[in-house]
Specification:
6 helices; four-stranded antiparallel β-sheet; alpha+beta; 24% strand; 268 residues; eight-stranded antiparallel β-sheet; 12 strands; Jelly Rolls
């Protein structure tokens, strides 16, 4: 679908969300499909890196006009604290939790939820991260990457001043971690996630667990990344180390974490 036609379809779908109730279901489905098709193209066009572990960085995961509406429609209700300090708050977009946010925002976020949990997006992630999933499959003692099960569970995160998370590879309950950055502009660029690798140079970095920073994915509008979760028993040299040093910010750091779990019962 060309950019012009895609934009026209998106505007039409957005307009139909405000149409009479009898057509709301159809309108929401059309919007979800627009978002799915756009996201798949973004993921397929993303920049793949095999080192220090398989990951991709993609841009414009949402259509630009929809993204502008979305960041103006971040919910204020339905969050739960994740950290003891309250520096990270989470709003689940699965298991019926969309119904806990403001009613007027629910159609938009339902469409986002349907996109992120779609088979099409899962398929794009599987294709782009196939090499990492093969490493994961060997460690999990399953025959091929296709035998790994993925259950997507998206969550909106609001991180405030003082939030940090030490370098970690993620729990083995997660198969793929996918994060979408949702800032209004480039002013929070330095608040992105850092990717690490094991290195003797890590001894020079306090509290680094012998890890060396490889790159920080800039926290700028409408980009994201995804990686396969790899523990020591998957690969000692390609563990999926990542983290976020303490942030200093005067407004929330908004992102969507779309975690693909190994079990439908996993999550929080």
């Amino acid at each position: 679908m060309g950019r012009l036609n895609q934009g026209c379809l998106l505007n039409g779908a957005l307009g139909m969300l405000a149409s009479p109730k009898s057509s709301e279901s159809q309108s929401s489905e059309q919007l979800s499909q627009v978002l799915i098709e756009h996201a798949v193209r973004s993921i397929e066009a993303g920049e793949y890196s095999a080192a220090p572990y398989p990951h991709i960085i993609f841009r414009e995961i949402f259509p630009a006009s929809f993204y502008r509406d979305m960041i103006r429609s971040v919910p204020n209700e339905g969050y739960e604290p994740i950290t003891g300090t309250g520096s990270r708050m989470a709003l689940r977009l699965y298991g019926g939790h969309v119904e806990r946010i403001e009613p007027e925002l629910q159609p938009l976020w339902k469409a986002v939820q349907e996109m992120l949990t779609s088979r099409e997006v899962e398929g794009a992630i599987r294709r782009r991260l196939h090499a990492g999933l093969e490493i994961r499959a060997r460690g999990d003692k399953v025959e091929t990457a296709a035998d790994l099960t993925l259950f997507a569970k998206p969550v909106i995160y609001r991180d405030s001043d003082g939030y940090e998370i030490k370098p970690h590879p993620d729990t083995r309950k997660k198969v793929v971690t996918m994060q979408l950055y949702c800032p209004e502009d480039d002013s929070q660029e330095n608040l992105g996630t850092t990717i690490y690798q094991l290195s003797l140079k890590g001894l020079l970095h306090p509290r680094s667990y012998c890890l060396e920073p490889v790159k920080t994915i800039p926290f700028i509008p409408n980009i994201g990344y995804a990686f396969v979760v790899l523990k020591a028993y998957h690969s000692l040299t390609q563990m999926s180390w990542h983290g976020r040093p303490k942030i200093t910010t005067d407004r929330p750091r908004i992102s969507i974490l779309n975690t693909f779990y190994a079990s439908e019962q996993a999550g929080f």
